[in-house]
Specification:
Blueprint lengths: L7 E2 L2 E2 L2 E2 L7 E5 L6 E6 L3 H19 L3 H17 L1 H12 L3 H25 L4 E5 L5 E10 L2 E5 L5 H14 L3 E5 L6 H13 L6 E3 L8 H6 L6 E5 L2 H11 L6 E4 L4 E5 L5 H13 L9 E7 L3 H13 L19 H16 L3 E4 L19 E4 L6 H4 L6 E7 L2 H9 L6 E5 L3 H10 L4 E4 L18 E2 L4 H8 E9 L1
Parallel strand pairs: 1-5, 8-9, 8-11, 9-10, 11-12, 13-14, 13-18, 14-17, 16-17, 18-19
Antiparallel strand pairs: 2-3, 4-5, 6-7, 7-21, 12-20, 15-16
Length: 490
Amino acid sequence: MTAATGRWIRNFVDGRFVEPDENHSFEKTDPATGLVHSRVHEADAVLVDRAVTAARSALGTWSDTAVRERTALLRRAADLIEERFEEFVAAEIADTGKPVTQARELDVARAVANFRAFADVVAAAGQESFLTELPGGRRALNYAVRKPLGVVAVIVPWNLPLLLLTWKVAPALACGNTVVVKPSDQTPGTATLLAQVLTDAGLPAGAYNVVHGFGGGSAGEHLTTHPGVDGVTFTGSSATGAHVMRTVAPRVRPVSFELGGKNAALVFEDADLEETLSGLTRSVFANTGQVCLCTERVYVQRSVFADVADGLVERARGLRLGRPLARTTTTGPLISQAHREKVRGYFELAEQAGAKVLTGGGIPQLGAELDGGSWIEPTLWTGLTNADRAVREEIFGPVAALIPFDTEDEAIALANDTDYGLASCVWTSDLRRGHRVAQAMHVGMAWVNTWFLRDLRSPFGGVGLSGIGREGGASSLHFYTEPTNVCVSL
């Protein structure tokens, strides 16, 4: 069997694609056109139980596999993704509608990098040991042995579905766990395609499973409430993360959550204008603003506020919305009509609060081929404050509010005045100020004169409503394994 037969996208359980059931299915639409391109088999509680049981059965075999063999398999998977690179690109575009250049240069390329990076991290990982001095000249040796967490539920969102999937699956498998993946109902394609790649790479049946569906009352809830799941890693909205936490609390399962953000950029008067405008254009509008790390609040020192506002408006108007496969396209649609309505609702809230629309604020007309898609204009506002809902709540679209400040202390206070705490950007030519302000941010990640620049060995995650825990490098190893301390009296 294959991942997609005809127009079906299938579940993958215990090394096999499952025959779809017409009575348990839903439509998948193309965000760029609004047209249905496939049907997805929705996993019921019985099928989710089969997936968890298969993962439990495969756990012993896979966890007992030598680290060098597990990491070699991850490297083979990376090679196979490269061999099928364009197939993954096509699946990512069909799922999300994003421009082909982004799908190639970011999403699929990072999937390859994730497998190779975590193979390297796990292959080189060691453990601390302690020689304990005891009375009478005796000593004891303490050292830790790390064991797989077990069966891990991997729940990934629709904005960067392949990138975030492999960011979780690669370290989980490298550490000897088995996984049951629940991709977003909006983006089922690449998680399903990865099943065939991992099978071809030699992963044992049951070590990687995919169940499709929704959250409450569907595959997501069936998975997170299953007693056979040992831990949950989730990326998505803060509200959904809170629900998942309540779900796993009775069984006291470990969780790793990377949730929403209302990220700030701070632009000081000494910042390089062109460098700053290029960085802000990316951080506000990348992936149509549908990145948890995107900037939705831009605080600009008053003396350069007009220059930054004018320059960013010019950049926003230079973005090109259009067919995903056109190389000139820079900006794709939102993921769905429902999400577009949410974003438009914030446009209305902003205008009611007195926002001045510098650019955008509406729905573009792109021609008959695309007018059924979930398109929206890149949008910039002035005239809002931190008291307004459009500045306090995550919008997750190509939009930002520009707000002036006078002093460094004021800028820090404004940026930290939020319930979220995922990321920030500081733009300044004063390196001392850059360090000082970045360290004062209440966030998990603070960039200085850049955005989205990642070393995959560094910790990734947020504080407050932006999440719990860290992943990346050794931080991923800490979540996906459990340490047992061994104390030997010498």
